[in-house]
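Morning!

As promised:
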Amino acid sequence: MIEFKLPDVGEGMHEGEIIQWLIKEGDAVTQDQPIVEVQTDKVNAELTAPITGVVKKILFSAGDTVEVGTTIFTIQEENEMSLPEAVSDEGDNSLEEPGDGIGTDRMSKRQLEAGRVLATPFVRQMAREMKVDIQQVSGTGPAGRIIESDLKQFVETNSVLQEHHNHGNDTLLRKRDPIKDANQAKNAVAEPEERILLKGIRKKIAEHMVKSVSTIPHVTHVDELEMNALKEFKDQLKAYSEDKEIKLTFLPFFVKAIVIALKEFRTLNASIDEKTKEIILKHYYHIGIATNTNEGLMVPVIKHADQKTIFELADEIRQLATDAREGKLSLEQITGSTFTISNVGPIGGIHATPIINYPEAAILALHKMEPRMVVRDLEGVIRLMMNMSLSFDHRLIDGVIAVQFTNRIKELLENPIRLVVEMR
Amino acid sequence: MVVGEVAVETDVLIIGGGPGGYAAAIRLGQLGKTVVLVEKDKLGGVCLNRGCIPSKALIHTADQFHKLTDLGKMGIKLPEESITMDLNAWQGWKGGVISQLTQGIAHLCKENGVTVVQGQATFLSDDRVSVETEGDFETYKFEHAIIATGSRPFIPSFIEVDGEYILDSTASLQLQEVPASLSIIGGGYIGIELGMAFAKLGTKVTIIEMADRILPQVAQHLVKEVIHNAQKLGMNIKTSARVEKASVVDGQVYLHIHSEKLGTEMIVSEKSLVTIGRIPNTEELGLNRAGVNVGGKGHITVDMECRTNVPHIFAIGDITPGPALAHRASKQGVVAAEVICGMPSANDSPYVPYVIFSEPQIAGVGITREEAERQGYSVKTGKFPFSANGRALATNEMKGFAEVIVDEDSHILLGMHMVGPDASNLIGEGVLALELAARVEDIALSIHPHPTLSEVWMEAAEATLGHAIHIINN
């Protein structure tokens, strides 16, 4: 019997969420057959069977969060299968004898465990204090033991249980009526609300945002760009890019302009090591592209953006966005960015105060591009305008530098020829 | 109810001062409640006065006496004349032990503000109890009550316990002389404990058991060692046999027994002891006036908080369904006390250990291998004999073994059982291990002191994993 323990599929992950089981208990599986889909910090991974055999027991259900190293299923090797099972496989399946199959085996075990909860006396007492039916709690401790943090987690997700009994003198008068108790519990949460466990990607996003905002003093600087020249430049390339089967957007130009500016303003492609009190200036330019997915915000990364052509960037951005939406990104593809772009323009809005993708030094949000009345040579004219909001780490970057940085981007994008000559 | 009577008011009234009742009383005192503890006889109940404690005093004495015969091989030379047992003198020593314990409990009750009242309590309603003390009559009004009246030996109708020839366990512990012969009706743990003790003191003991073996509630392989020793002590064990008639003629007890195999036979002995079982003391309490339901066998059903069907009246100990064991009662007492004070306590554990002071002792907690298999577990077990334990050899106590039963998949311990020297003290480790949901590795990996008997648990745990040090692992 092999116990399959949740491996560390991403660098340094410590827990994963079971998304779905692709097999069920008792299924015969072959080596490397996908068994379970697990989601870690930001990656979905399919875990495969380590050997050919029969899946004996599934220890967690979909939605459970499991620590790395915990056994999530057991699998029995083909040649160590015990006789009774082999016989029952050959037997008349339409007349399954109770007591032989794995299902009934599990059922009788569950009946037994009604008397026993895998938890220490202290935890059982704590559950009663918290008014938690410990039988409902799934344990994350060794062998599924229920530990203190499981109770806390359970309570957080089950507001219904936060019924306020006066446990004092009225114990005397209180006749325990389960139906009444349940009604009282319902009344206690009369306001309609729904509670969803903060977990998986949403939990990671939340933690990440808190970490960033509580560590980095953010300042946001907003400026506008005139996009007519760039649009014209892009339009001229339309036929050429279609020939190359590339859908050209504005984003690759922004990436290029930003990389050029980053090379000149080095503290924007940097981070602070709080432990050693050092500034890390990065000589590589990995640009994160904040992307909306069904699961929430994801930031796929274009590695070495300075070494790629506009077309290469366009193609890579399209591929990453597709992968992100399909949840197929690998850990490698979502880590290591040095500067992040948040392209909120297609959705709308004038300006924003984006939160820096910790531990980076700055983030640039690009807003909606639209014709606006502007003044040129003391005359009102209509131009294609776009706003951009740069949030930067004020520990590292002074306001002057930030403005110079956006000015440089502005200069390059408003004059695409300059962009071309600066490109590598 | 008398018109104009003045009832003494109390937060909690407890009926019965045994190990359940007094534990509840002390806990309630600690939690600041006013408590009246009504005991009709002596504080400490059966356990202290007529059960656990005096019987262990007798068993220990008998054991010491019996071991004298083994001293020769250890080089101790005893005087030539025969050694005798003065049971009368023993009664004095036993009395001292009991009074020290009962005084201790009285002191603890006093220090915790518990009012101890001697007398017979009867419910008048669901909030009043009358207590009759030698003609005096007092009424108590309570907010909560705990019924802890315990149990007494069950005597079948055709047998009359006279206390001189036909004894119950209480009377057997008050004998002034070691009887020459003793027939014991019932081969459960009380019969076996007392029977082996008297056999060690030189009594010719016969045990009559209706089931096909003695200690029928205990796993067979654990009992085997006890049966072997009973035979060595010269005890006569008759199984699948029933007593049909008991009579006393000329200072001798005549028991007519019948078995399928041997037909009817007569057993003549100086004394006879009835240890068939115990029945709950739930009559004569006026429980119907309090509205408390009593089951068919006289038991009061309670929930995990020890509440009866009347929510402010609790019941604990032998009057509740389950094994009649003092430690169960004490736990229930503490739980009931805490629940009354609004605490979230519960009697939530299946791990009530059992201990039998036979020769050698048997103790266990959790389920046996057979029970585990019946419940659908794939089990692994490990056994380790005391004969491979250094301390057991050095103290000439090498009978028996320790056994651990674990779930094959998770290695979580399901049961720990033992027959052997000091099993009663050694089972504490098992209770803790099971309560903490330990795996067998947890015991195997813990350092056990050497040279001690406790090492057998470690070795049995290692044996489960296939690597006990002091035996050959298969």
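The CA atoms of residues 68 and 120 of chain A lie 23 Å apart.

Hope this helps with the figure draft.
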